[in-house]
Amino acid sequence: MPPQLLLATNNPGKLAEYDILLEGCGWEVVTPGDLGIELDAEETGETYEANATMKAQCGAQASGLVTLADDSGLEIEAMGGEPGVYSARFLGEEASYGERFAEIDRRLSDVPRAQRRARFRCVIAVADPGTSAVRTAEGEVFGLIAEAPRGEGGFGYDPIFWVPQHSATMAELPEHQKNIISHRARAVAGARQILKELLYEHERA
Q1: pLDDT on residue 202
Q2: Alpha carbon separation from 16 to 7, 29, 175, 193 (Å, rounded)
């Protein structure tokens, strides 16, 4: 039996993406729900790396398993990099993404299309409870903020993130395409190498 890897998130969109992105990684991926545990790591860090590390360490301590967690965000150049690390809490945790899209549109109302540059960033942290070591990997993708939300796929800010080379928002891309170019997919490429090394270390232990 492969060793278990805890995925420290309850976000159904993330879980669905990771289910595909981690396929064949050599680990049995489990969720907090599978283990019957609740993770409540507060995202109080000022960087994606700090938040991802906190969540990964929290999961590793609660479960005793190697734990993978991420933090990601949308950085809009014309808004000085906002919402950034506060993307999931932009306008408050209770705000809907529709409200967030409307506020971003309002702030960018005088910004020409070519200057609506943005990027998605993702940092993944993998915590090993056996050694207390945390290793990280990151990925990013560049695009523009669309003038209106488009697409039914993805989650979060995907409907307003326009990917010029595909002439579509992230939410309009077919799942297999998104899972090649997304910031999370690019971070997972590095995380898979970390998991491969940990698997080798665990097999030798």
Answers
A1: 79
A2: 11, 12, 10, 21
The residue type of 198 is: L
Indicate left, alpha or beta for 63 from its phi (over 0: left) and psi (-120 to 50: alpha).
alpha
What does the pLDDT average to over 135-141? Answer: 98
pLDDT of residue 205: 64
Contact 133, 201 (CB under 8 A): no
Active site (annotated) includes residue 40: no
Share of the chain above pLDDT 90, in %: 84
- Which of these is catalytic: 19, 34, 40, 71? 71
Q: Which helix (H) or strand (E) holds 31?
A: none
pLDDT tier at 57, thresholds 50, 70, 90 = very high
**Cα separation of 116 and 107, whole Å?**
11
